[in-house]
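User: I'm writing a tutorial on reading structure tokens. Could you give me a worked example: one chain, its sequence, then its tokens, then a sentence or two explaining what the tokens reveal?
Assistant: Sure. Here is the example chain.
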Amino acid sequence: MSFTISAINANNSASTAEVSLAISPDTAIFSPANLVPGQSVGSPEIQVSNTGDVDVFYYIFADWRPGGTTTLPEARILADRLNIHIEASPNTVLYDGSISGLRNQPDTGRLLVSPEDDVLQFVVSLPNTAGDLVQNLELDVDLVFVAQSSPQA
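And here are its predicted structure tokens:
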């Protein structure tokens, strides 16, 4: 003889949330043409807005590639030597290192409460130690912002 039992668990529900960022301006923020060792160039302020309906953690990546007639190995050399400093207001450094190392930064994400904004400042510099190897090289860089509702594990 078989025996079957069932139970009803009533009043359960599930819903979704919108995770969304808006970046302003969404155009090029700097064009450091003819940068020489020891020189730096800053960007206008960048506003990162949480336009979703939940708090988010955001991360910044640099998607870089050769520009002009620069080859991929030459671009790698330049990306390894160019420094990018990213600071959130007030005086919080999110990243300070090579463009090639700008992946998934800050490490733990930056909490941005809905519907607030963050104001960021970017400074790109070519250290005095860059040497002649980077002369006349070009690098195209896209800054990519990724948001999620919880920090990475």
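What the tokens reveal: The chain has a mean pLDDT of 91. The longest helix spans residues 72-81.
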